[in-house]
Write a structure and sequence with these properties.
With 143 residues, the chain is an alpha+beta fold. Helix 1 packs across helix 2. The chain folds into two domains: 44 residues; 87 residues, Alpha-Beta Plaits (2-Layer Sandwich). The radius of gyration is 22 Å and the shape is elongated. It contains four helices and five strands.
Length: 143
């Protein structure tokens, strides 16, 4: 079915007094698909830059705060990798440099998918984790 036909069917179903469960589930699933399509369309309409339609490379570098920074870099890199997989993108490790302690000092991830550069362009800058230290009771430390 096409989206216009699906919308018409949903409208007709809404006007019926009696709907069986399976019909309602089908209409609901179709409405979710249409909503997802519209969300993607709106996003792509915003991405008009010269490189927005291309793939992307994410580089994660641990800060100079020691093992805590390296662990944070490892966690952040893992989150980006998992996100790329959930998006069903082709992703691959470009480079990974381990620190003396064996954690990530630097890692680069390439993600191949249409509009990935534009989608991730807001992810530039420094991501810090603020945590409470038991030793410094109540003061925040960053990694």
């Amino acid at each position: 079915m096409h989206n216009a036909e699906e919308a018409k069917l949903i409208s007709q179903l809404a006007g019926m007094d009696v709907i069986n469960g399976e019909l309602f589930k089908q209409a609901y699933d179709i409405s979710l698909d249409a909503s997802e399509f519209l969300d993607r369309y709106q996003m792509y309409e915003l991405l008009k830059g010269p490189y927005d339609k291309e793939g992307a490379c994410i580089m994660v570098t641990a800060g100079s705060e020691g093992v805590a920074s390296e662990l944070w870099a490892e966690k952040l890199f893992g989150m980006y990798t998992s996100w790329a997989r959930r998006q069903r993108c082709k992703e691959g490790l470009v480079e990974k440099i381990a620190s003396i302690s064996g954690h990530i000092q630097f890692a680069a991830l390439e993600i191949e998918s249409e509009y990935m550069f534009g989608t991730l362009s807001g992810e530039k800058g420094m991501h810090r984790m603020i945590y409470s230290s038991v030793e410094n009771s109540g003061t925040g430390e960053t990694s």
